[in-house]
Amino acid sequence: MLMAVCTKLCDLRHVRSAAASATRRFYWELVPLASANGPHRSIFALSARQYQQAPETRAEPDERSTAGLHKQEQTEQRPALSRKSSPTVFSNQQLQPQPPSQPPAQPPPQPPTMSDRDPRMNMPTAVQIPYNIDWIFQKQRCPSRVWWLASQFVITAVGIFSKILLMLMNKTRVYNKERLVDMISKRPQGVPLLTVSNHYSCFDDPGIWGILPLRQACSTNRIRWSMAAHDICFTNKYHSMFFMFGKCIPVVRGCGVYQEAINLCIEKCAAGQWVHVFPEGKVNMEKQEIRLKWGVGRIIYESPKMPIILPMWHEGMDDVLPNVEPYVLQWRKRVTINIGQPMDLNDFVDDLKKRQVPEPTARKLITDKIQEEFRVLRMETEQLHRERQQ
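and the corresponding structure tokens:
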């Protein structure tokens, strides 16, 4: 009995000795940290030495970084094994190259739309578009019956207003008017018409179409498709609906030739319709000879059907609607409109395509042809306009 009690006391003494040793070790580890960081930060310092960040909370490099690209390449070359999968022993038969399996039969690919035709359509741009105009292109590509009825109402009202203002309230003289009238109604079916003119006033379109007969000026099936600045005509829902029904295509100035407005113009030319373009790209208030934009060159070059190109020049439209405040329409002003000769660029464009001229160079050469025609037509129209004012 006495021997059993002695054994228990020895065991208790060993436990107390082990506890004291652990306390001394804990104390001597805490004292240096407490002296360096203070008593309240010693425990956090110990914890920091043993803490490791969880894998799911670490920042993984994505495909936009260099590390992410290297990681993606390694992943494609060496597929990762799951944690639960056992090591696989490859035999000599498995290491031999296997013949490629035949891919499953797929339907033939559909031709891409103009929006997906070139990857440059998705290039970032610094131009701000405060109002979303994507829905306008969708409705103009696939117009419904309600759209046509609303468009007919707007085109009729604007056509009558333009004709009264330009032909009755002002002194307008048109030279070679029959060329434009015949091209609208008598050109071969399916052949598109592309008219180009200078841009001196905000009333150029729809004002100049007041020279047409009412059967053309008030017909939504015959009147032109024209590009209009998105930051002027498409600033809100109501303005956008009015100009959309007026067959105006929103163009974002500064986005280049690869944008939806140019694509839609090419599609309308492919359908054999009439498209009007102001190649200067803005209202030329100083009336200087500026370099024409290359969008018109792309329309001509990429159109599936070569359009009839009809140049026009006008003088005096900036007197009907001045470019200074208060922007009030005037009357009893002299306006001179001159319709030029149709330009035949079929052989020129075919030669560019046969010689495989780079597309940017081809667009520039086509646009230069139009600019040369503008110089001759401008001199002729300015002379006719000066003779009327004497």
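(Above: one complete record from the training split.) The longest helix spans residues 2-37.
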